[in-house]
Amino acid sequence: MLPVSSPPRLDWSVGRYEQIGEQLLPAARVAVDRAAPAEGEHVVDVGCGTGNASLLAAARGARVTGVDPAERLLEVARELARERGLDATFVSGEAAALPLRDGGTDLVLSVFGVIFASDPVAAAGELARVAGPSGRIILTAWIPAGAIFELARSSRQAVMDALGAPPGPPPFAWHDRRALAGLLGSHGFDVEIVEEQLAFTASSPREYLEVHSAQHPAWVAGRAVLEPLGRLDALREQALGILERDNEDPNAFRVTSRYVVATARRP
User: What gap in Å lies between CA 22 and CA 153, rounded to an integer?
Assistant: First the structure.
């Protein structure tokens, strides 16, 4: 029996998240279109990763600050901004402790970023603090259903079981309007949400799994735990079964994930 241990904090620098980020680019476009940053506005992108939303906002003429704890991903974003000649700065920081002054932001964006904050209450307070009285917040959050959600849940559970870790508290429901209204309402924000969809594709379920498991930071970190214990093959078979069961394209691979775009404004 392994000693009970907490799973290590996920390091988003491992693997090749920039490849995963390319798959999420359509959702970033949807979020930025809905946010409609104006030329000259200051935009803060929380959990910016390799800069999907940051660079889209900067291309519209906004002044962008991207914030992320993963320094390697920030370097990727900086290089992309330099290549494209865009006005975007990228700094290290956490959603629950943003390295920014109060009320200096016109638009706070977070495309599948703040939803990973370990302290949602603190993170919401920070979004509200930097947004100020007239700022607005646009964030995206996965709806917890579908093949990709089950893929992530099975991987996480396998690691927890291997470590002998007890079940943690349920994650905050960033996708739920009532939950978000309760979280941001205390800071004076009204919340609206719209539902969107994002398709993940590959030549086959197996090909998708091979690429995803080699690139996604959570799978790369999980492999380091499971492989020495001889538990990795079982997880791969379980994951492949999920993808094959939910495959929408009999000639290749396609699964659709649902997510919400939430808009928070002060009335």
Answer: 22
CATH of the domain at 145: 3.40.50.150
Instruction: Express each pLDDT in 120-179 by its tens digit.
Output: 999 999 999 999 888 999 999 999 999 999 999 999 999 999 999 887 788 999 999 999
Q: Is position 1 within any domain?
A: no
Judge contact between 216 and 151, C-beta under 8 A: no
What is the distance of C-alpha 187 from the center of its chain? 23
**Per-residue tokens: 191:** 């919340």
Q: Taking 70 as the threshold, does the pLDDT of residue 5 lie above it?
A: no
Query: What are the residues facing 202 on neighbouring strands?
Result: 253
Q: Which two tokens stand for residue 194?
A: 């719209």
Between CA 248 and CA 202, with CA 110 as vertex, the angle to 5 degrees is 25
Pairwise CA distance, residues 47 & 251, whole Å: 35
Question: Does residue 2 fall inside a structural domain?
Answer: no
Vertex 10 angle, CA 154 and 185, to 5°: 90
The pLDDT score that the predictor gives to residue 4 is 40
> Which of 263, 259, 257 lies closest to 34, judged by CA?
263
Beta bridge partners of 107: 43, 136
* 233 is a domain residue: yes
Q: Fill in the DSSP letter of residue 53.
A: H
Q: What is the pLDDT of residues 35-54, one digit of tens each?
A: 999 999 999 999 999 999 99
Residue range(s) defining the domain that contains residue 251 = 17-265
For the chain, how far is it from start to end, CA to CA, in angstroms?
A: 55
Q: Kindly give the pairing relationship between strand 42-46 and strand 107-111.
A: parallel
Could you give the angle at which helices 120-131 and 177-185 cross, rounded to 10 degrees?
A: 60
The 10 Å Cβ neighbour count of residue 204 is: 15
Residues 179 and 117: their CA atoms lie apart, in Å, by 15
Structure token pair of residue 254: 């396609």
Residue 224 lies in a domain: yes
